[in-house]
Amino acid sequence: MACGEPYATPQDYIDFFCLDGVYDEVDGRLETFLAMASSDIDMARAQTGACDCSLTSAAETFLSRLTCVIAAVIHNCPCGEVRLSDQERQMYLDWATVNLNAIRTGNLELCYGETGADWPAAASVSQNLTDRNQAIIILNRWKRGLG
After folding, report:
1. Global pTM?
2. Beta bridge partners of 111
3. Helix or strand or coil: residue 81?
């Protein structure tokens, strides 16, 4: 899923907040808030160059939920269907901020086939102190295809 597309539908929002029966038909306000929330996610994805990758199914579900949460935080109309208390709004905002930062920094990888910044990796620098070490370093580079 490329950036610029909504991550959640109005029906996703309705299902997430158990609003069945509240909407006779979905109006443009909800779509507007979902689009605004999706743009926050797009900005975070753009920071890691992840706008054109294929999302995992788990990432699609997660981004749908994140979109619904952000939309609820910014949707503060007096006639709004979701009325959050100040504590709930702050809790959702904190959760969304942590996850947007994780996407932005690459700690939460959304793309299929990729690993996040926290993926375990270990290596050490080979030192060229002797002729034997130099030969081993050259051989290892050759084996890795680095010639």
Report:
1. 0.74
2. 55
3. coil
